Structures are given as C-alpha cells and as structure tokens.
Amino acid sequence: MADNDRTSLHGLWTSRWAFIMAATGSAVGLGNIWKFPYITGENGGGAFVLIYLLCIFLMGVPIMMAEVMLGRRGRRNPVDSMRHLAEETGHSQLWRFLGWMGVTAGFFILSYYSVIAGWAISYVFTTGSGTFSGADAALVEQHFDTLTQSPLTLILWHSLFMLITMIVVAHGIEGGIEKAVRFLIPALFVLLIVMVLYAMTTSGFAEGLRFMFSPDFSKISTEGVLKAMGQAFFTLSIGMGAIMVYGAYLPKETSIAQTSFIIAFADTSVAVLAGVAIFPIVFSNGLEAGSGPGLIFVTLPLAFGNMAFGTFFGTLFFILLVFAAWSSSISLIEPAVAWLIENKGVSRIKASIALGLLTWVFGLGTVFSFNEWSDVTVFDKTFFDVLDYLTSNIMLPLGGVLMAIFAGWLMKREASQDELALGRGAYLTWRFLVRFVTPVAVTLVFLNAIGVFS
Description:
Blueprint lengths: L15 H12 L2 H13 L3 H29 L3 H12 L6 H33 L8 H12 L2 H20 L1 H28 L5 H9 L8 H14 L6 H7 L7 H29 L9 H11 L5 H35 L3 H22 L13 H28 L2 H8 L3 H26 L5
C-alpha cells in the first residue's frame, strides 16, 4: 500500500457527510455569530458582505483545499504530516514547524475561546430566567460587568465548557466527534432559521436586509477590505491545523474540492443568516449596528429584554451561540491530542484529560485578564489581548501563507493532482489561486494586522 493511501491510526470518517459536518462544525463558531455581524455593522453592511463572499470563494476555499489535501496526504497529526510531506518532496524538515504553529495556535485559541464560550453558557441561564426582561441599558451593562469582574464565576463557566469539549474529544472520531457534530450542526441551522423567521416579523426586517445586501461602496475603506479578507480566512478555521487533522481522517475516494465548497457554503450561510437574524432586531429597537464586540452580550440582551417573547428567543439565541462554540472547540484541541497519541503512545482518554487540564490552566490567564490582572499589560495588551493578537493576527495568516506556498510551489504537481482529482481547467485554476492570488491576499492581511499600513 502506498504511504499516502494508508489509514490514520485514529480511524476514518464513516462518510463524506460526516467529514462535512465535522469540518463545518470546526469552521462555524463565535466568529460567525459573534464577530461577523459586528464587523459587518462597523464596515457599512452590504459592500463588506459582498467583498467577504468574494474572498471566501476566491481565496479561503483554495487554502482550505490545500490544507485538507496536506492532511490526507500525510495521514498524521499536522506536525508529522508536514514532516512526512517535506521528506516526500525533498525539502527541509523545518516545515514540521508549520504543523507545530497550527497545533500551538489551536491550543492558545481554545484557552480563551473557552472563557468567552462560558459567557454564552451563562447568558443562556440569565436570559432564560427573565433577568433582562424590561431591562434598560444600564442594567444590561452592569450585568456584563459583574460577570466579567468575578473570577470564580468565569472559572465555573470556563470549567464547564472545557469539560463538555474534552468529553467529546475523548470518545474519538466516530464515537465522539462524529456523534456530536451530527447533532450540533443540524441543531444550529434549525435554531438559526427559527431566529430568522422571528426577525421576519419585526418592523426592522426590510431595513436589516437593505443594510446587508445593498452595497454602498462609499462606506467601505481599504481597512474594511482587509478586514473582509481576514474574516474570510479565519472563519474557515484554516491555518490552525484543525482542517489538516480532519483531512487526515478523510477517505481517499472523497472529493476534496466538492467537500471544501460545501463546507465554505455552509459556514458562509451561518454567518449571513446570523446577520439576517440580528440586524432586523437591532434596527427594530433603534440600536446601533456598528456597536462593536458588545453587540452580542450588551446590545442584543437589551433588545431581547424589550420585545415580545424576548426571553424565549433570547435564550434560544444564546443556546445557538454555545452550540457554535462547542462544535469549533472540538477541532481546536484535536491536532494536539492526535500528536500526543501518535508520538507518546498514550490513550486518547489520557491525552484528552492531560491537554484539557493544561488548556484549562492556561485559560485562567484570560479569566484574570478581565479582573485581577486587568492592569498587567505587555505593550498595553492584557494576557487575553496578547493571545488574541498573536493567534489571529500573526499565527493564522502566517500559517495560511505557508500552506499555500507548500501546496502550490513545493508539493509535486503529480501528488496534488492525484489528491485533488480535478479536471485540467479546474486544477490549473486552483493552482493559480493558491500560488499567486491567495499568498498575496493573506500577506496583505498579515501586514495590515501588524500595522504596516497604519
């Protein structure tokens, strides 16, 4: 059997649909439902959405195809896949550090992601109890401040979220991740559609649609274009090893191109539907669309608290947010778990417990960033801000550029043709995008992120 035809020792997805569910779960997260609506609001709506969609399919999808291909070709965790592929192509073993960067980025992101997801769990119970019913802005802001200022409360929710994540990971590919995403992803879409149906009954629905789908390019700036590129790359979970390790479990006969487009479409649909659900509620209540990161945890609870059936739909919304975060968190830790199993010979349960505890401890830094350590800064950034900046602005775009370079320039053409199994025209289009368009675009995002254009 050829080495690239070997089966991952963790097993394979039982079907193409299982892989699509898992990879969609990895891509769909807080970035779709929390971040996409607020940065769309900050950047003028329709023009930003149009540029974002172009970036997804012209740049994000080619990198996703490259990352899935590298994973399936290597059939190992990201570190060992890159080591093996560098060996296969006759290039430096230093390429294994691309795998390490992805594994490390996933670990860092989960450590703070878990804390933010904990806020969402907290809001499920707070909203469900009617706390925000009839509340004014001062009460909603005070509740958020009280939550973030209490280390013990944040640790409680952070611990609960990490526990439910590691339980799924510990059960493996078929018994854990597959079963979880087969429930989470359909449930997430059902909840979103219910929210959209509710938004259709509000007075601001038409205004919300105009805001999202009527492009006004006078409202978009160069920085807005770069933000659209950045959001397109990061929302697909590329560059952090998650898609690569999921690709390692993909059967040989499954089409990488078709599944990548389906995943990108599903991920984009969630982001757009979230905007369609949220903006009508915002406009119906006379609120500000560009209110920034507080849109979900301050602005929306205020709106839910003052609308008919607001308690029910508010609770539904935060359950949706928890599901999205949960499906993503599973993939963030899987690359590290796979490396530990393959290189140290430990069981999946032990690997899950060890890495879960390590991530939990590291997450305490983010917990304390909002209270006890809020004055402890490096270059005016808290521990949480440093992690967020390091991963989102440096590690992920750098990982994306390097994957595109390896897949497009260093990997043997016969190998990439064999894995992608595309027609000549489609293959040459992918090769052109991944060699020229995508690296330049991601480099622009990277340079903007580190302040070159400021």
